[in-house]
Amino acid sequence: DKDGAARISRLPSVDAATQRERLRVWDDVLRQLDTLPVAELSASERINLAIYRPQIVDLAADVRFGAYEAPFNADSSFWSELGFMTRKPLRSVEAAEDYIA
Fold it and tell me: Element (H or E) spanning 18, and its range?
């Protein structure tokens, strides 16, 4: 995800274009997973695949079904963590600038 960085200074983009790109990435990951020779994988690799693939399916479904559009006061949404940001201490000018950016 292009929004990731060592120092996160702003919220990730959640516009429709960014969501389409995220869905493209998740769908590509699923296509790659579907080409794996499962019978040739070790037992631990098969377990990893059995855990990982449903996680990617869920990430893609979140985008497909518009989970990113859930309102702030919904049970769970992209925005639901914002209310907790005020609990994080701002220990430097840089942290304060990142908070208000």
Answer: helix 16-34
pLDDT at 18: 94
Number of compact structural domains in the chain: 2
Residue 80 within a domain: yes
Residue by residue, what is the 3-state secondary structure of 12-78?
Answer: CCCCHHHHHHHHHHHHHHHHHHHCCCHHHCCHHHHHHHHHHHHHHHHHHHHHHCCHHHCCCCCCCCH
Q: What is the mean pLDDT of each run of 10 residues along the chain (101 residues)?
A: 56 87 97 97 97 97 87 62 68 80 67
**Residue 53 token pair:** 């693939």
* pLDDT of 89: 78
Whether residue 96 is contained in a domain is answered as yes
Residues 91, 54 within the same domain:
no
Query: Residue 73's pLDDT is what?
Result: 63
Rounded distance between C-alpha atoms, residue 69 and residue 52, angstroms: 25
